[in-house]
Amino acid sequence: MKFSWLAVPALAVVLAACGNAQTGGDSTPGPTAPAPTPVAGASNDGVNLTASTPERVTGTYGDGVNTLQFDLAKVGDDIYADLSGTGGRPIVHIQTTGSDYDFSYMGGGLTLHTTKSYVANAKATETPAQVSSAGFAFTGDMHLLDAMLELPEVALLPKLSRALGVRGITGSDFPASLVLHKMGRQSADALGIRLQPLDAPATEAESYCQAYPNVSNDCYGMCGPDCTCWSWVCGDCCYHYGCAVHDSWCRDGEWYFCYDITAVIALFGC
Total structural domains in the chain? Predict the structure, then answer.
């Protein structure tokens, strides 16, 4: 699906000017990006980044057999994401057009639509357990979500997410990457994939982290399967509203939004 350049001017500027922002061209530089943490051996982790700023992350990831291409952008509440597999096979495409969010799966055989106003109202709900998924409308063949989970490229998403985290590209410091981290999280749940945690950074909210999440409540609101912390999703192992919404949907049996790679949970942020 072709991105509607004129529909989202701010995102179009980010996508068009990415090269200037990185190469020091004549245009006015954008926001200063936190530099990804240099990691020994990172060049051999299968990731090839072509852009890595808070507003845009692009590149490829491969295991020698299958390849993922990712193009991710976020400006304010506008998001754009395109994830394709080996040979350019379409997997997930997300774009913002005016006041709407549109998701396309497996080349458009299934689509999902929601609005900015619905998401904003849902995020204003103080209790994550009260956030409804009723504002997300599917059109097409729902079985494609199951078929998508069988793609070998989808099984690479958790490893790609962690590899970006190792490089310092977290969902908190690089908001454009959050949608990929959320997809990686969902695919890990669905496919039973477990990853070695990364050392969580120190936080000023230690008392809050000790209270939420907690083991007695199955680490509700922590980003990661069960009580396994994916610190790179939102930057730490604390409670996060967006992760709590995901956990609430799982507990309520909202399987399409819990285990399938819909990526809609990324709209709720960290």
Answer: 1
